[in-house]
């Protein structure tokens, strides 16, 4: 448990001005923490301070663990009293999160004048797809970067998405030998309506009949449409198998409610600024 002592509670000013406001701006659930994860490197947790009497926020995170098991160990357990920009903030480099990891967590709160600690029911956050703030600069991963990640992690016509807020959308789907071609249809903040029920054909936000093949993946990199924090992206994978059978998956959803940043990106937020000059707050682009 000595490890807990090594957790760095970030107390550096400036570089993150605005993230608390941005993350919770359109949120209808302010009791949810916001995560910003840099793949394999660091995790930052923001929790809105909603009442003046909340003096402590704590979290217990269990990575890829079944909470019903007895031999639970907490992968990151930390409490903080530090409030920055309206949010309790925790930063740690002790928990490494990779694509498709699932974090189950329990949050704790302590209020002035109340001896007991309030414990919220457990919740989970999934880190399946990358969601990158507009302010980050990302080098395309060397070689087959995203394709390799998609191939080892995501199967059954479930592509790996790379959303950079307000700018690009990347889609990577491993190529199976029995697949002849795949396409992708996506809707932003709307559900697919069965064809029979459509009075007029539904306008898709993304409709690519055939993804191109690259590095052993079907890949797509598009500047349209623009997705941002808070968006739900509903998608189906379409296509054809080599035996002529059609592919059309059930609609599935990606919810862009946390930042998950590939290690190949560099973001202003990542570099702790030594408190000399406060940089201008970096505005995160929204739609
Ligand atoms: C956080 O606070 C709770 C409640 O006071 C306590 O039980 C727990 O041990 C603390 N965790 C850490 C890591 O200090």
Automatic annotation (TrEMBL):
Keywords from the named record: Signal
Protein name: Putative conserved secreted protein
A molecular-function term among this protein's GO annotations: carbohydrate binding
Keyword set includes Signal: yes
Residues of the CBM39 domain: 28-132
PROSITE patterns: CBM39
Native source species: Culex tarsalis
Segment forming the signal sequence: 1-17
């Amino acid at each position: 448990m000595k490890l807990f002592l090594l957790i760095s509670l970030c107390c550096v000013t400036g570089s993150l001005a605005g993230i608390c406001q941005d993350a919770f701006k359109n949120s209808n659930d302010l009791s949810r923490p916001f995560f910003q994860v840099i793949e394999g490197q660091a995790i930052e947790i923001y929790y809105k301070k909603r009442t003046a009497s909340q003096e402590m926020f704590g979290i217990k995170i269990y990575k890829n663990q079944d909470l019903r098991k007895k031999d639970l160990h907490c992968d990151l357990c930390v409490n903080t009293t530090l409030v920055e920009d309206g949010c309790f903030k925790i930063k740690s480099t002790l928990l490494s999160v990779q694509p498709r990891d699932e974090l189950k967590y329990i949050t704790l709160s302590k209020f002035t004048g109340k001896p007991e600690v309030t414990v919220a029911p457990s919740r989970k956050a999934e880190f399946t797809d990358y969601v990158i703030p507009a302010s980050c600069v990302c080098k395309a991963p060397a070689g087959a970067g995203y394709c390799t990640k998609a191939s080892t992690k995501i199967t059954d016509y479930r592509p790996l998405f790379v959303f950079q807020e307000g700018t690009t959308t990347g889609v990577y789907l491993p190529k199976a030998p029995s697949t002849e071609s795949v396409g992708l249809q996506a809707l932003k903040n709307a559900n697919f309506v069965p064809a029979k029920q459509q009075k007029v054909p539904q306008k898709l936000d993304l409709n690519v009949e055939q993804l191109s093949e690259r590095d052993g993946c079907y890949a797509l990199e598009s500047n349209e449409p623009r997705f941002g924090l808070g968006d739900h992206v509903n998608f189906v994978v379409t296509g054809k198998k080599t035996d002529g059978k059609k592919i059309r998956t059930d609609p599935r959803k990606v919810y862009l409610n946390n930042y998950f940043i590939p290690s190949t990106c560099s973001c202003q937020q990542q570099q702790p600024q030594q408190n000399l000059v406060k940089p201008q707050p970096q505005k995160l682009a929204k739609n």
